[in-house]
């Protein structure tokens, strides 16, 4: 039997209170010696936290800087934006601001959300491959009923289509939903469970399933997500003017195009999930600031940086993020500081998720421009030495 002395204190009546958080910190001090003084200093009401955290003990404070302004010409994000970035990496905010200035001088960045889905991918198991194949046809024939069963669980989620693969005697099925302004992982999990139960009850033969056969690749990068979007497929584009690049960045666009070719080859050789300089930096910093699920950085950072040198010497540059998972409603977005950062962007609440996605993609492009130029000019190491080290 486990020794009760080592059990983390919980209060079955009110576990989200200042007093209960203090009780747990005192328990941890007794068992580990850690004071947790700063962790216990916060302004958030613990009563707001059910559904976001368990065994609450305090708040880890993260520095937030603002980069910008950034001119975006999007279908959802249109205008001038100041972008909050939560990070402990020196030079990061300054670098993104530098890239944003270049974009602004070149007329702003164009952003487009191309498509958006969220998946759950159960595996249906049969006695042999023929049964699995026949089930796939039955599923297509009964899609309308499956869709109705799934959508009974949600007022927002819509089942759009199914993708299917047979392996051995198993049929893997990827259920593709739209989820409004929520990221939707839990939403589609609940909906797919209802759909699978309907299938099991109505399929004329024996039907066994596992709710996730791991082809949804939840919180994991996969090449499948590069092809079939998980989250939002969003593209940010800019044409870098040759004279602006020389004036502001001391970089010739021909040299930048050449370095992009070398970087593409290196990324391909390494099997990297992104061929640009550092998409994860901007995405992670924005995710932390705005209350996104930080684990989704692993899916969201994958993408493609494309370039084309124009006859006049200007350089077309674009970032495609095929699986950007963001939300402006639900999850951590309603917590006080995260909500403030979303409000700074005009992105809090319903009807704003595509706007946030466009801002994220535009920010990634700005960061890539800045870092690429720093590498080309040899300022990458010196800037970190000057601004990125604690004195």
UniProtKB/TrEMBL annotation:
Pfam families: HMG-CoA_red
Class of the enzyme per the UniProt entry, highest EC level: oxidoreductase
Taxonomic lineage of the native organism: Bacteria, Pseudomonadati, Pseudomonadota, Gammaproteobacteria, Alteromonadales
Keywords from the UniProt entry: NADP, Oxidoreductase
Family membership: Belongs to the HMG-CoA reductase family.
PROSITE patterns registered for this protein in UniProt: HMG_COA_REDUCTASE_4
The protein's name: hydroxymethylglutaryl-CoA reductase (NADPH)
EC assignment: 1.1.1.34
Originating species: Alteromonas salexigens
